[in-house]
Predict the structure.
Amino acid sequence: MLQIKEHMRVNKLPHIWCPGCGDGTVAKSMIQAIQKLKYDKDNVTVVTGIGCSSRMNNIMDYNTFQTTHGRAIAYATGFKMAKPEMKVIVVTGDGDGAGIGGNHLIHAARRNIDLTVILINNYIFGMTGGQFSPLTPHGDIASTSIYKNIEYPFDICKLVEGAGATYIARGTAYHYALTEKLISKALEHKGFSFVEVITQCPTAYGKRNKMGDPYDLLMWQKDHAVPVEQVSKFSQEELEDKFIIGEILVRNDRTEFIEANEQLKERARSIKGGAGK
Amino acid sequence: MKSKAGTVRFMQGNEAVAEAAIAAGVKIFAGYPITPASEISEIMSIRLPQEDGIYIQMEDELASMGAIIGASMGGKKSMTATSGPGFSLMQENLGFAAMVEIPCLIVDVMRVGPASGMPTHPSQGDVMQSRWGTHGDHPMVVLSPATVTEAYNLTVEAINISEKLRTPVILLSDAIVGHLKEKIEVPEKVKLINRKMTRQPAEKYLPFATGEDCIPEFAERGQDGYRYHMCSNVHNELGFPNDSGHDAAERMLKRIHRKIEIHQDEITFYNTFDVEDAEILIIAYGCVTRSAKDAVKTLRQEGIKAGLLQLQTIWPFPDKIVRRFTANVKTVVVPEMNLGQLISEVRLNSCAEVVGLNRADGLVISPQAIIDKVKEVK
């Protein structure tokens, strides 16, 4: 078993995350998944946007791009078209991926382009100081909702399902071994794969909502997670304040975008001179 | 811009851009529909797959710009095409391309703005947006064609400049040039420039270190250990955020400007007509050049010593050229299809008095309007 530091830029440590942050746990799950799949580091690209999640690839020894807020999926789409042989992973957050970058998430899922998007959901805009995000629960306290959040969050996994993603899963920082397995399966899936990972932000979210220390926040994840295999054992009412973890959807009925382009090129070549001239 | 004469075609300006881009090696086009630029997308969707390239229709212009930067980071020549509203949406990522030194081509086929403006009448309203649209201090190279032939040739130049200088380049076209059909000789072959590749082994490679030319070297990813970082923060020579070093930040920002400045002469394109003994000099760019050329012809027939300086490169502003050609004239007339944008730069550099002729109502500036203006200021 490789040490994770063999896939890290250890000279870039310390990282910028607060003590108790879940992002490092996700980084470890991700690196271990890549190591166990024996991917060549040269052949892995990690694209991020802006926010706490975006600083993950600074410390990872892969091809790494940290782009603009919300646009990592768009950059990754272009990169994948140029380098289809590479494993391209986008790491994003609930603000970056479900807020400002939500449109790109929808359309990458719809295209079924072979990207793996890992959306770290800590329920808050952490880096900017704790403003509510599109996934902050209704009624919660944030630096811009001290009178309680009047907006409603949404299920990001259901959104990408509606958009046509062909692999969807959810893990948590607490269930780090499961998260590693889900990331691994997402990476091996040909087509658009999406893994939401629920994590804790003790600094900008947990403290304001009096949820305790990082340990308590991890226990909250444990207590509110329902493994997908056990969903049928719960009533709708019981599921209301819970979330499902595990493999939510796998489908293989859609051609992957780059592969579809290769087929399209064949058709284009067969009518060359007949079209567009 | 010399090339062997090739096939004679009857071609639209937008089509010339698309064909030139393919000839210059563009392999990936990402775009979003907008009039009057959509033909470029449509033609690329047909032609690129025939050339082993990919056309992708993105969900918006922010995504288009992100995708072409990503494609170029992957080593492929890439481009997008849009008009004013879409160009506004591209600005943040355009700044990324300037700062992270990613070659790519952005075609803006201008229409009347602001907002939806007058869809889709022609305008030259994006001159300042093309220079200063993104936030912060950044260099920008902008070329502006007046004919279908120029649309072809300047597209090739734009792609070559972007590759050579590792910078985004904007082709500022307009609804007239974009939709105009003219005779064009499509060259058999065009001059091709590819970005400079590093010879440093991965362990010694510094992705943002440069020599005197101020241009960083590119490394192909996916092999030999070139796993470098590129980020949107002000960065050091390794490409990592430079949170504390203000000197390094200033060095980086000044270098990306200097990179363009020291190559200014070779990226400055212009044409002159009857300037030798001119007393009144018209300085025009883009579609207005066509009316200006016609006006000069008529004025000369009437014995009025008028001349024309056409700027094909508008940014970086050809300051030396303007100083040179205004040194011996009495008055300079700057006709623009906007309320006066490039005229400010002309004023800063002109040796003679500068007068504007403007209209921003979606109609062209006619040769007669220019003739009248010249006679008025003569």
Observations:
- Residues 148-165 of chain B form the longest helix (18 residues).
- The radius of gyration of chain B is 21 Å.
